[in-house]
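thread from #wetlab-drylab

HS: before we spend reagent money on co-crystallization trials with adenosine-5'-diphosphate, can we at least see a predicted complex? here's what I'd submit
DV: go for it
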Amino acid sequence: MPIISVKNLEFRYGSREVFSGVSFDIERGDYVGVAGQNGSGKTTLIKSILGLIKPQKGEIFIDGVPSGKFKDWYKIGYLPQSLTLSKSIFPATVKEVVSLGLLSRKSFPKRITSSDDEKILEVLKILKIESIKDKLIGELSGGQQQRVFLAHALVSDPEILILDEPTTALDPEIRENFFETLRRLNRDKKVTILLISHDVSHIGNYAEKLLYIDKKEVFFGSFKNFCQSKEMENYFGEHLQHFICHQHDEESGHKHL
Ligand code: ADP
């Protein structure tokens, strides 16, 4: 059974259609890059899956349950598009922000136990932010804040991780660490990942499958199938098709297929 199933989704803001005819199944353990130009509807699609907004048409199932009836939202970690907080509006420490990620799966009374504390420290260590655990979130750089929000999303051991343009605030070195962390989570812990990006030149380095939308579903499937598709060659042109697919050895020009 797919972990996320989207059937014939259509979304409009007022009379303005964002997308229609979007259908795909994401299997447990998939690593999917969600790509498309700015304004193509990626964030709208993700917010629909998360139940934050309601599409006009279509169905979404999470773990086999219609999303309207799905209750276990703690199973999904969500990192929204570059969120930056200032000290004045959110006076909490790094550790406190991360601990909030555990509260969503607790019933009342919501208390942090000593085993929770261990879990929080473990996640802080993985993301190399242990040393700043007592700092106020508003005092951190954009890149540090981004890692704190990722820690918040990871601390409840989500089965699905959805990241919306997660690395815009990260400098190149930290970006590589960040992607390495995602790769390990996907490979070792079988976390299903949806990584949204408008930058098609990188996404094939990380993800195994591609969902490309542009007011409709242009493609869903493996990068390998994308690379071999005549239809995609007609849509993107040969150069851009292979620039996106990342299945080629740059120097020899040979395909890794
Ligand atoms: P992407 O994430 O691919 O950049 P979005 O899903 O954010 O695209 O936006 C898709 C389209 O919907 C854009 O044209 C955007 O301007 C429009 N849009 C997004 N949010 C709203 C909103 N709350 N009200 C009206 N239009 C919106």
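DV: Residues 180 and 206 are 9 Å apart (CA to CA).
HS: ok that's useful, forwarding to the group
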